[in-house]
Structure prediction request, 425 residues.
Amino acid sequence: FTLNKLTGTVPPIPALSQLTFLDIRDNEQLRGPLPDGFAGLDSLKQVYLFGTELTGTLSTDLCDTLETAWIDCGDIECGCCTANNDVPCPSEPSYAPSATPTARGATPKPTGFPTRAPTPPPTVFATSPPTHPTATNPPTAKPTHPTATDPPTAKPTQATSPPSPFPTVGVAPTNSPTPAPTPPTRSFRDVILQASSASSIDNSGTPAGKAFNWLEGDSFSQTQLNSNNDVSVVQRFAMATLFFAMNGESGWNNRGWLNDSNECDVSDLQCNGSGQISSINLRSVGGVAGSLPDEIGLLTGLTVFDIARNDVSGRIPTHVGRLTRMQEFELFENNFNGPLPDQLSSLVELRRLAVTLNSLEGKIPSIFDGMTKLTFLDLRDNNFAGELPSGSMANMDSLKEIYLFNTDVSGTVPTELCDTLENAW
Prediction:
């Protein structure tokens, strides 16, 4: 499916156990974590994932068969791409065009992809993101075919019939040349509907509807749209939705979130080198209330999200599971209710998770299996009940502090945590 405009997340595909070749690169709106790292694709030899917004880790179950993994090395980890397994992570693929021209003066399109990738450079895992080819890259080998200016290979044959006694009459063209088609005009709606639903943006009374209306009237957003910077357009839409959902209009409308300028200039935000919002810090900002909208899941560059010591209520949205780069998730001292969402299990880069002093309830889900980097876990002063998911917590090799008091949780803290644990309340 390479070089299309596919959107959304990749669904689980464990039943395709005979699949050897998977190519979904250069679909810039594919986003979210890899489904179980493609575990179960026992025959997979070649996988191409670069030029997408996909994140996560390729399953080590693939190491027995995987020969080539072309991925965005800054976003997707490849456990097989090591010197021991000899699976390369090349920086630039090449295409194999057909050598047979299809028409005079026409450049043929590639007929397919090589069955094996070209020999990679000696470094088996790239330390920086690879340079990705685009649809305008020239083929690596040019086909040979005649052009319109080539001289003829033989003299033209002379006419053998006598000339006509009648004069030749020129025929005027019947119509003027067809003008080139005008490229279709892109709209905000075209871009946002790749990331959000029509029902949310068409209702002007919802936070998403208000954000969309603001987007259409914002000149800086229009500049980003005209420059085909869809990432910035979607990011500004998500940022504005958070603003309207968390009482920004009346509670904290003087902090520059809706300024007609680059969102990275807002003091509450920080951006990474790619221009993605990587940090939002609204801790103890007076007037922050309302609820946390689903559109937070569109800010896939987030590593820090801190809205502690405010008055935000409602449930923690399941869409936080898309924030796979998150390292610090600070929601303590608010009014959140409902359960911890199972989708938090996708946040395998977490170092800090703090939700103390809310009204969260239900069992603590088994979300900790992949959180091997978590050092701080604070769940105290909530309405949690039931058994502690000890089995899920046994792999948290970096955990130093855990706080569970003032809950109805029972069970045993795994002994595997004893080597690193410093505080357990």
Summary: Helices lie at 188-192, 198-202, 207-217, 219-226, 230-245, 248-251, 390-393. The two ends are 51 Å apart (CA to CA). The longest strand covers residues 53-58. The longest helix spans residues 230-245.
